[in-house]
Amino acid sequence: MGIENLLLGFHVAITPYNLFIAVVGITLGTIIGVLPGLGGANGVAILLPLTFTMPPTSAIILLTSLYWGALFGGAITSILFNIPGEPWSVATTFDGYPMARNGQGGQALTAAFTSSFVGALFSIILITFFAPLLAEIALKFGPPEFFAIQLLTFSSFVGLGGGNPLKSLVSILLGFVLAAVGLDIVTGQLRMTFGFVDLMKGFDFIVAVIGLFGIGEILLSVEEGLSFRGVPTGMNLRVVLDTWKILPRYARTFLRGSFIGFWMGFKPGGATPASFMSYAFAKRFSKHPERFGKGELEGVVAPETAAHAAGVAAILPMITLGIPGSPTAAVMLGGLIIWGLQPGPLLFTEKPDFVWGLIASMYTGNIIGVLMVLAFVPFFASILKIPFAILTPLIVVVCAIGSYAVHNSMIDIWYMLIFGVVGYVFKKLDYPLAPLVLALVLGDLAENALRQSLIMSQGSLAIFVSRPIAGAITAVAIFFFVLPVLTPWWRRLRGTAVPAPREI
Amino acid sequence: MRLADLITASFLALLGGVVIVDAVRLGIGWGTDGPQSGFFPFWLGVLMIAACAAIVLQAARRATTVPFVTREQFRPVLKVLWPAVALVVLTPWIGLYVAAALYTGFYMRWIGRHTWLAVLAVAILFPLATFFVFEKWFLVPMPKGPLEAWLGQ
Fold first, then answer.
1. How far apart are CA A159 and CA A269, in angstroms?
2. Per the CB < 8 Å rule, is B55 touching A167?
3. What's the domain range around B11?
């Protein structure tokens, strides 16, 4: 049944209009990925209002293509400018930038794009097979199971996200609080509006994403005194073909990176640790670990494969469970709701053309994407040569338009500015932003799942442990929540010194 | 850095307090048909205060000399912020496109010291391009002012 459905999907994805949409999405996405202050999440958020009038399948193709483009674009800035556009591109700079400085920029870029493509393809193939299975299992889920999964989602930010677990927790709570502002749809009461009419509508996550990631990022980058010193691309067909001849040597690295990426990626916040982990493994198993960090091709292959595999894998829980694996996936999930689709396992039975069109478009989008970036790297790299004094106001205006367009309201532009300042302060103080956004998107869903579960159990929390599936998931979630407390203990038991608290 | 950490955590704890007050007003217990409206926010507020208190303790124990932001760093941040505020203040009066043109032109001239020709070109062409993309192509209306009214848009 899988193949037939996939063919149906290709039927949808390979119409001229949808292919055109994919090309537009990838072009915009790559530009967004290259520009400072515009990443995948807020690029998707800004364009979301434009998709309200489109058919949902074309709309999701536009947004996912934008996402692929942004992932590719991140590699360009990491390698040529030593600026990681996204956190998961950081590991790419370790060897990518030295290679570019040694005059091997073309090779590094070719390897990065090809690795991204391989990692993405690996995840897409796994999604094609696993998504229907997972959706089928998820169909049997009730509110307690869904709440347990939400718990697991947020616990993995606290337990596995790195950084300060308390600050991750506060980010999550703040997201939930902001989501609760406004009308409570269950009882019809107004919550936390304090008599202000403007607060009745609550806070839209799109505006939050644009402010936190867009404006906040700009404030941070001007503070650091932005100066782009790029290295020439050195890209031509010969370099591409020559690099492709070398790359099969790294088959093991590709495979390892893909597995790490997929495994980490379908849990939230996975792309960044996946890229670092893949890099560390590649270095450890390499015959020449001393070459890493000085311009080793394998050091570009490993993190890029894992980051893209993880980025694609983040779509899996979004379409099957209705729970996004990354902020960008969270914005897309918000899009699904706005287009009138109910995210979750029912999508597979009720809207097969949408789901399979999306999955098929992941194949076409990535193929188009890798060819386009390979062909047009010099063009995309030249975008960073635009003076900063021009880029900044343009990005701010685009962000303002995106925020206004959500509800046609001025107050949203003000919220965007406030969220921008919050994003700036939070980023400096090490409060992670991704869990805040995810909590803001999932807030109502999580609260409803909790309420319905409690109604089912007459108010007893035991329902989350007594049902087998919910119990197992809750147990893992609790384990992740207490992991930061357990780790120092465990270290002490084994006799290793507890590392000194990080200076921040 | 420590002071900023303390202030932020205290502010968030205060926010948690506000959430709890509102939650208690709505009722945090069991209503006729399930948990009341304040149930979920109440526990969010409680957890928030607890987590912030722990952050405050952590930060207070740790001595750091790194400042949150230096004067040199903060100046360019303000230079981005206040023109952006001006853009938002002007938008309802003169429309988004005109405000965007003024804002872009001002910023380019003031920060980038670009030539007047470049300033005029970008400040006119960019809002014009966004106008066609958003208003005409995707039919997303933006706030408009006297200029658009005069042009009959």
1. 11
2. yes
3. 2-61
Domain total in chain A: 1
Residue at B67 is within a domain:
no
* B116 in the same domain as B52: no
- B25, A444 contact by CB (below 8 A): no
Structural domain boundaries enclosing A350: 2-493
The DSSP code sequence of A140-191 is T--HHHHHHHHHHHHHHHHHHS-S-HHHHHHHHHHHHHHHHSEE-TTT--EE
Of A209, A215, A307, A218, residue with least CA distance to A261: A307
* A43 belongs to a structural domain: yes
pLDDT tier, A227 (very low <50, low <70, confident <90, very high otherwise):
low
Q: Count other C-beta atoms under 10 Å from residue B86's C-beta.
A: 14
Task: Please check whether residues B78 and B142 belong to one and the same domain.
Answer: yes
Model pLDDT for residues A52-102, shown as the tens digit of each residue:
888 888 999 999 999 889 888 888 888 887 777 667 788 888 898 888 888
Residue A450, both tokens = 């909790």
Query: How many CB atoms are located within 10 Å of the residue A374 CB?
Result: 18
B66 assigned to some structural domain: no
pTM equals 0.85
Report chain A residues whose CB lies below 8 A from the CB of B87. 396-397, 400
Task: Tell me if chain A has a CB within 8 Å of the CB of B135.
Answer: no
Residue B92 distance to chain A (closest CA, Å) = 8
Tell me how far CA of residue A183 lies from CA of A187, A192, A200, A444, in angstroms. Answer: 9, 9, 6, 11
Q: Which helix (H) or strand (E) holds A32?
A: helix A16-34
Q: Are residues B107 and B40 both part of a single domain? A: no
For residue B37, list chain A residues with Cβ-Cβ distance below 8 A.
Answer: 184, 186-187, 189, 191
The stretch A443-457 carries a mean pLDDT of 87
CB A316 within 8 A of CB A325: yes
Same domain, B51 and B90: no
Domain count for chain B, please give it: 2
Instruction: Indicate if B109 and B139 belong to the same structural domain.
Output: yes
| Residues B43 and B79 placed together within one structural domain of the fold | no
Q: What is the band of A463 on the pLDDT scale with cuts at 50, 70, 90?
A: confident
